[in-house]
Write a structure and sequence with these properties.
heterodimer, A: 229 residues, mainly alpha, Fumarate Reductase Iron-sulfur Protein, Chain B, domain 2, 3 domains, 14 helices, globular, B: 395 residues, alpha/beta, Glutathione S-transferase Yfyf (Class Pi), Chain A, domain 2, Rossmann fold, 2 domains, four-stranded parallel β-sheet, 20 helices, 47% helix
Chain lengths: 229, 395
């Protein structure tokens, strides 16, 4: 039993334990957790702790005492608040709560937790861009309806985009749909990485539609290049 | 002018390097792995400059024949950042490759969405490293997150044989070897190493320019031991990159209390939870900088930091009357301006959001005349007189 009330009693303890075992099975897990002085340095350094009900110390402590119910709660309610800045690596015990969260998130995605799907709503176009084109950020993302809080300059960029990209001296930057010009051969190699390391399965777990779209694009390219999926 | 860090340097409790170094030397490990036939170490080519890192070890920074691993956020949204880096390397007379056989590191997406895993991330890193190795040029990493993440993957490749073999097998499917660079080098380390060469070519007086520095989290908080430190900068207690460059160029480096805080980027937050990003960037960074240091400009050395600190100021200023309005740029753009670079043709400041015109005036730059020159370039492009602005065009 954990120290706190179980927020997800409808989820069997065995299922929560199974997810925790997946976290511990990650090769990086022993590098991220050594113990906890409860000194609070990680919390003091954490940007997310200032704005959310979020504590990297609780993440490390729950992991250290294997509080299965609290870890499950954190996996659903807390981990997506983390900024992944790794300011918490300041830990005098060399814990990395941010690293633990990376693994917790991965397990959440791998198992298609509803909270992970919700956290990633609105994020599909980013995943599509990086996995499909090889560059995550493209100039044509700069649209005023996407970044209204960035001020009138975004509208100016979007209106002048083609011209302003041609006014960049580096020859590789005359693109608008990708951050820079990426070779076809390079993309093929990237697609092979996604397929051979299980990333396509991860995408299917959280967004079947996105998986179908990406598969259509990638499989055609890979088959044309002579690779069997 | 030096950096005002009396509290760090005049105390009787001096910070001394020495004794046992708390981390293993990655050079030893990758050399052993190479001897065992597990991977190939790409050596830092000569000429190089050696600089000190956090625990007193030395790090080689190559000067010539560099392969520039670009940043998606820089190239996509603030392209003057990348352009300034290339311009500096060209002006210093060094050879480089701006590759098309390069992908993003994909770490922004990984830290935002976790829709990847250790093997995929390491394979992406080492595909890029192998691409550099095939050219014979040595990788220089433009993005702070790419740099930090690649050091994470180096740790994993060194210590987890199963992962190492998995990545080696993936790379073998398309005929690439597993290559580990002798050093993972950030472009700001390159600028740090050549800062005196840049200063020797300086054409603008920056002695009246007051700066504050935001050190990028993923530069010095991830795998901390090979970030650059210098006894002369902050008493050796904070990373020296960026600050040492500004000092070399004669600029003022002012201190502020929240220097350790992140910028608020958050990876997923900057894209889908920007209320957090705007709030943090303003309340914990820009307003504190203004209140405590009143800088003319914020200088930093990472994609996300420039983007966040620059773009977050509009809404908080307009909607909440926040005490904002400080231009933000990279150390590369700052150094290029010091060397006489054009603010629009090279530094491409028109892609930035926060007003920079007062800063340019203080730097002695006639921004109206410069903008008119750039407008003429655009008119020439529109008229079909040339297809692109070239390096020859920008001086």
């Amino acid at each position: 039993m954990g120290l706190f009330a179980d927020k997800y009693p409808e989820v069997p303890f065995e299922e929560k334990s199974r997810l925790w075992e997946e976290v511990k099975a990650d090769a990086r897990f022993p590098d991220y957790l050594y113990g906890c002085y409860e000194c609070g340095i990680c919390v003091a350094a954490c940007p997310s702790a200032r704005f959310y009900d979020f504590s990297p110390r609780k993440i490390a402590q729950a992991a250290a005492r294997e509080d299965i119910e609290l870890i499950y709660e954190q996996m659903n309610d807390d981990v997506w608040n983390c900024s992944q800045c790794f300011s918490c690596n300041r830990c005098p015990r060399q814990n990395s709560p941010g690293g633990l969260i990376t693994i917790l998130r991965e397990v959440a995605v791998n198992n298609g937790l509803r909270s992970a799907k919700q956290a990633l709503e609105g994020y599909s176009r980013i995943v599509y861009k990086i996995m499909g084109t090889g560059t995550q950020v493209s100039p044509d993302m700069l649209q005023p309806d996407a970044f209204p809080d960035w001020g009138p300059q975004v509208r100016r960029v979007s209106e002048e985009l083609d011209l302003w990209r041609r006014a960049l001296p580096p020859e590789t930057l005359h693109t608008t749909k990708t951050g820079w010009q990426v070779d076809d051969k390079t993309l093929i190699e990237l697609y092979l990485i996604w397929y051979t390391t299980g990333v396509m399965d991860m995408i299917a777990n959280v967004d079947e539609g996105l998986n179908l779209i990406l598969s259509d694009v990638m499989e055609e390219v890979l088959e044309d290049a002579g690779y069997e999926i | 002018m030096g950096i005002p860090t009396e509290a760090l340097t005049k105390t009787t409790r001096r910070f001394e390097r020495g004794g046992d170094i708390p981390t293993e030397d990655y050079h030893d490990i990758i050399n052993e792995l190479e001897a065992d036939g597990e991977l190939i170490v790409q050596r830092v080519p000569e000429p190089y400059i050696e600089v000190m890192t956090k625990y007193g070890r030395m790090k080689k920074i190559p000067l010539n024949t560099t392969w520039h691993h670009k940043s998606c956020g820089q190239c996509g949204h603030i392209p003057g950042y990348s352009t300034a880096i290339f311009w500096l390397v060209r002006k210093l007379g060094f050879d480089y490759i701006d590759p098309t056989d390069q992908t993003s590191c994909t770490a922004w997406n990984y830290y935002a969405s976790a829709t990847s895993n250790a093997a995929a991330q390491a394979a992406v890193a080492h595909r890029n490293f192998a691409a550099a190795y095939e050219t014979g040029y040595f990788p220089i990493i433009h993005c702070g997150t790419s740099y930090g993440h690649y050091k994470e993957t180096r740790e994993e490749i060194m210590h987890h044989p199963h992962l190492r073999h998995q990545v080696r097998d993936v790379l073998a499917k398309f005929g690439k070897p597993l290559v580990m660079p002798e050093e993972i080098v950030h472009y700001s380390e390159y600028i740090h190493a050549v800062r005196d060469k840049i200063a020797a070519l300086q054409t603008r007086d920056f002695s009246k320019i007051a700066t504050v520095v935001h050190p990028a989290c993923h530069y010095y908080k991830l795998v901390q031991e090979d970030a650059i430190y210098d006894e002369e900068i902050y008493g050796g207690q904070r990373t020296a990159t960026v600050s040492a460059t500004i000092v070399a160029l004669g600029g003022q480096v002012r201190d502020y209390s929240t220097w350790f805080d992140c910028c608020g980027f958050g990876f997923r937050h900057i894209l889908v939870s920007r209320d957090f990003t705007r709030s943090f960037a303003t309340l914990r960074k820009i307003e504190v900088m203004k209140q405590e240091a009143n800088p003319d400009v914020v200088i930093t050395h990472d994609t996300g930091c420039v983007t966040t600190l620059d773009k977050s100021q509009f809404a908080t200023g307009a909607a909440h009357g926040a005490n904002v309005g400080v231009p933000v740029m990279s150390d590369a753009q700052f150094a290029a301006l010091a060397m006489g670079a054009h603010p629009f043709r090279v530094c491409q400041l028109h892609w930035h959001s926060t007003d920079y015109r007062a800063l340019l005036e203080k730097m002695g730059i006639d921004h109206e005349a410069a903008w008119a020159e750039f407008q003429q370039d655009l008119d020439d492009l529109k008229a079909g007189k040339k297809k692109y602005l070239s390096w020859e065009d920008v001086g």
